[in-house]
Design goal:
One of its GO terms (cellular component) is membrane. It is a multi-pass membrane protein. The chain crosses the membrane at residues 21-39, 63-82, 94-115, 121-140, 161-182, 188-207. With 216 residues, the chain is mainly α. It has one domain (11-215). Helix content is 72%, strand content 0%. The chain has 9 helices and no strands.
Length: 216
């Protein structure tokens, strides 16, 4: 009876299968992002240099959201790899947390396209930023669940590493939440807050390095 109870929460699923599924969805979502760049119907295209130039310039919002979403999704994928690597075992809750996160990853091409199609409305920005917020919070919940009392990770995993990864997973959600607040005021340039990401990343790296030195 004890063995049945203890094995109930354990999924007979190897970590490599979970990583393969996650990598596939990340790759598929990153590829689909290019669909957010919408060209007009061929019957409306005029074969002229002036029209082609005007068309490229009119797609600035689509290109901006494509590049932004691609880079942030790439950062999420890297964070996911860092987060999954020290996990030793899997259980039902962790797997469903991962699937919930992947649900919002696969939704990002839609929210990117929506934001690009409605650059003059704050709702477009809010949908995009809320999507990134959900992905980041999903990854944070996975990490906190896996590392709480070293539930799914080895006892030898340093506490400073656990703190560093936890803070890292909160960077994009924090900036996204700030962007949503700005967008709610009617500001149409709320997504400019993502330009803070390199600076926040640098500060986080500096904090981690000092934390590691002080605990040595």
């Amino acid at each position: 009876m004890t063995e049945e109870t203890s094995s109930f929460g354990t999924m007979h699923l190897t970590k490599s299968r979970l990583e393969s599924l996650s990598d596939g969805i990340f790759a598929f979502a990153m590829t689909l992002l290019v669909i957010s760049i919408n060209l007009p119907d061929k019957s409306r295209i005029v074969q002229s240099q002036a029209y082609a130039t005007h068309l490229i310039l009119s797609l600035y919002s689509d290109f901006f959201h494509y590049v932004l979403a691609f880079l942030i999704l790439g950062a999420f994928w890297l964070s996911h790899h860092i987060m999954i690597h020290p996990v030793k075992t899997l259980d039902r809750i962790f797997i469903w947390l991962n699937l919930g996160t992947l649900l919002f990853v696969s939704l990002l091409p839609f929210s990117t396209s929506f934001a690009g199609d409605f650059p003059d409305t704050s709702l477009g920005a809010i949908v995009f930023e809320a999507n990134l917020l959900a992905i980041g919070l999903g990854m944070f919940c996975q990490w906190k669940y896996a590392t709480s009392s070293h539930r799914l990770v080895g006892a030898e995993l340093p506490d400073e590493f656990i703190r560093h990864v936890a803070l890292g997973t909160l960077v994009v959600p924090g900036i996204s939440f700030l962007g949503i607040l700005i967008a709610l005021t009617g500001n149409l340039y709320s997504q400019a807050v993502y330009l803070m990401l390199p600076f926040v990343g640098f500060l986080l790296h500096h904090y981690h390095r000092n934390d590691r030195v002080s605990s040595a």
